[in-house]
Amino acid sequence: MIQAGIMSMIGALLLTVGVTLALINVYPAAFLLSNETSLLPGWSMWLVPAVDPLCYWLGYRFWMYGVNKYQGVRIDAGFIFTRGC
Asked: 43-71 burial by CB neighbour count: b if 16+ within 10 A, else e?
């Protein structure tokens, strides 16, 4: 494992965010854009920069919906003490 003090902040972000996103996206993109499957035409790869922010925005809205609906953990204290150890 690489020590945090050795690497600069840019290097750490590149390894933790950049490489992770690249590895997550390479196989679906290769499958959709390969000539063998031809699910999408070749020009569709130029739509990726437009679709990516849309997917990010949808994920963000879904996350914020969950955060706004969250009411905390509800613990029934009677259940804990009546159950026995």
From this structure: eeeeeeeeeeeeeeeeeeeeeeeeeeeee
